[in-house]
Each structure stands twice: as structure tokens, then as C-alpha cells.
Amino acid sequence: MLSANANRIDKAEINIVASEHGALASLKGRVDIDSSPAVRDQLIALLHAPHPRAVSIDLSGVTHIDSSGVATLIEALKIARNCKTELRLQGLHDRLRGLFEATGILSLFNGGMER
Length: 115
Description:
Elements: E1 13-19, E2 22-31, H1 36-48, E3 54-65, H2 67-82, E4 86-90, H3 94-103, H4 105-110
Parallel strand pairs: 2-3, 3-4
Antiparallel strand pairs: 1-2
């Protein structure tokens, strides 16, 4: 089992804290082809729970994200929009911010729900 492998460096972890105002999902480590399915499952479960009005995803602890990790975030955004939940990204360090701005992804999250 991959998650039990102590030799795996920077495996993805997700910590979710919910309140009456919304939820904060803090991601840490590598969000890649190996870890994104588990991250996806937890984000989808959060979004399908009694619908929080707002969910923030804190990426300050993410050390690497690949295309499957980005796809996971975009899928979560589509589900959030269907549930009328605001989904925002926060804690983007320079490398992730540059990637997300260059691809237009950041504006989907932090600009698309404020209308």
C-alpha cells in the first residue's frame, strides 16, 4: 500500500476543517498521478456533504502538482459550481501562482464565482 510506504517522500495529505461558514481543505506534499485520486475523493465528499457555501483549498504546503492534480482541482470546481458552492484557492507560492496564472486556472477559481 503506497500510503504506508515510509520511503515515499512528500506524499499528498489533505486536512479538512469545516465550520458553519464553509470549509478549508489544506493540501500538503505532492499532488500527482499517484495521490490525486485520494485527494479527489476527499474533495468530492466534502462538496457533496451538506453543501458548504464556500470551500477554500490551501495549497501553501504543496511541493509539486502535475496535470492530474490540476485536473482534480478543475473537477472539484465543476462540482462546486453545480452545488452552488464558492471554491477558492489560497496559499499559492510563486511557482504555483505562476503556473496557475499562465494557464488561466487561477481566474477560474478566484474570479469565476464572485458574480
